[in-house]
Amino acid sequence: MVRLITHNLLACHAKGCTSNNFPLQLKDVQVELRDAEYNADFLRGFISRIEWPALVDAARQLGDTSLPNEPPEMMDDDFLQKLHHVLLEIHIEEGAMICPNCAHVYPISNGIPNMLLAEHEIG
């Protein structure tokens, strides 16, 4: 499933595309909200792995403006609930992710991203 926790880890891997290949831009997406079990300890432990500007930008592309531009020093429950929602409850069902460098399109269908490349695109 494409959630923003997954999107935040994906970069273009097409042949020769080694710079400015993250984050993938979202296009023509259909979003579904699904409840997920809240786990504050998981969020506190995972936040250091997040590319924060990419997460905030992706959330805003999907219409969610709840996250601050910078992660707060004090991670209170209100902030963690917002982070939980953005990372784990927003599901991208259909659409595409596009490389900002080479414009390669990675389609998303039924919530599954197709990150496979054609043989001539493999580096």
Automatic annotation (TrEMBL):
InterPro entries: Trm112, Trm112-like
One GO BP annotation of this record: rRNA (guanine-N7)-methylation
GO MF annotations, alphabetized: protein heterodimerization activity
Source species, domain of life: Eukaryota
Gene3D superfamilies assigned: 2.20.25.10
A Pfam family annotated for this UniProt entry: Trm112p
Complexes and interactors: Interacts with TRM9.
Family the entry assigns: Belongs to the TRM112 family.
Protein name in UniProt: Trm112p-domain-containing protein
